[in-house]
Each structure stands twice: as C-alpha cells, then as structure tokens.
Amino acid sequence: MGQTGRLRMMIAVAGLELLVGILLLAKAAALFPVERAVTDPTPDVSDDVAQHPVRSIVNSARKIAEDLIAPPQIDGTEMERVEPRLPLGDLGLASRPKSAMPKDWRETLLYRPVATSSAGFEAMGRKLFISGTQSVETDRICRFHDIAWPCGQRARAAFNNWMRGRALNCFVPPAVDRFPVAATCRLGKQDVGAWLVSNGWALALPGGIYGKAEATARTAEMGIFGPSFLQ
After folding, report:
1. pTM of the entire structure?
2. Residue 82 falls within a domain, yes or no?
3. For residue 76, is it within any domain?
4. What range defines the domain where residue 113 resides?
5. Is residue 191 within 8 Å of 215, Cβ to Cβ?
6. What is the pLDDT along the chain (231 residues), one digit of tens a residue?
7. How far apart, in whole angstroms, are the C-alpha atoms of residue 83 and residue 102?
8. Is 80 contained in some domain?
9. Residue at 142 is within a domain
C-alpha cells in the first residue's frame, strides 16, 4: 500500500469517528431532556434610574449586620468636660509678660548724667538707680590673687567714663517729685543694666533679669571679679 492509500484510510477513519460522536450526542439529548423554566421578562428600569438615580442606588444596596456596623447611640448628658493636660515641657510655652510700668511714667532723655555709684547717677536734678542692679559700694576693696584694689571706686569711674556725658533714655515718673527712683535706662540701643552687670561693674539683684549676666562676668573674670586694677 502506497502513501496515497494510507492517507485515504486515515481520512475515512476520522470521518467515521466524527459520525459516531454525533450519534452519541443525539442519543444523550433524548435520554436527558433539559427543562427550561419560564420566567417573566426583566422589567425595564432604565426610566426609573434616569428619573431618581440616588434613590435607585440606595434601594439597590443590601444592608448587612446593621446592629454591628451602625455607630452606637451616644447620650450627651453623660459627657463630662475635663481639665486640659499639663504641657510635656517648657518648649512652646508663652513667656511671662513683663511688668507694666506705671501709667504716668514716660521715657525721657536725661542729659549730662554723672555717676554717683557703679549703678546710680544724677541728671537734670534727678537721682536714679538702674533697675535690677545693685551698686558696688564706693569704698569696697576687692582681692584678686592676694592683690587688694579699690574696686568700688573703679566701678563708679567705669560707669562714668562709659556714659561720657551722653544722654540716657529712662522711664521716669513726672517731674513733680525728685525723690530717688529705680528706672530702666538705655544708652542708644544698649541696656544700661545689662552692660554694667555683664562687665562686672554692678551686681544683679537676686531673682532679677541680670542673673545670667553676672554669672558670665564671674566666669570671664570681668570688672570686680578679675584683674581690672591692671588696666
């Protein structure tokens, strides 16, 4: 048998197998009929959705476990306002407001000041002391490495030389009374009290604003805390 004969035999076998398969499918359909349920046609809801789109979406959503998912009812009468917690630290706290000056005190230029002590002066008939500072007694004697020197006189002279007759801008009461007062003063933009204490020519009052300035002067051996007698 040649190659052509073999090809014809294969085609015939394939056709016979196809025919057998068709017959088997027909027999199975006759033995197991499929029952088709008659259902009503699906209603057309396009018009209702077009007219009420939000209502249609809500109605079509299923509600599952409403008692578990719904938020609990809160009775407002049981709520209680508590005090705010304390801050975790000083960072971010508002600084304390500065003490207000008396309403009748005014910032006034005082010309030709003359030092009466290391933190006090006279000008235009007024006697003032720098607020927040304590003068070094004029007769005070200081010691540095067993060397004694008149630091009180030197402190007053340093204050007088620094002013050099220039005007100080101070908060003072009305000119009616000329009694000695403690006042805050500036020489230009320089705080007078800060300059005196940081250079060691005056002491800071306990609990005042110049405590750190005095500590710096002591550490650096400035003014009465160092060898100023050599200058």
Report:
1. 0.54
2. no
3. no
4. 106-226
5. no
6. 566 777 778 777 777 777 777 877 777 767 666 555 444 555 554 555 455 555 555 555 566 666 656 666 666 666 677 777 666 655 554 554 444 555 667 888 999 999 999 999 999 888 999 999 999 999 999 988 888 999 999 999 999 999 998 999 998 887 655 678 899 999 999 999 999 999 999 999 998 999 999 999 999 999 999 887 666
7. 35
8. no
9. yes
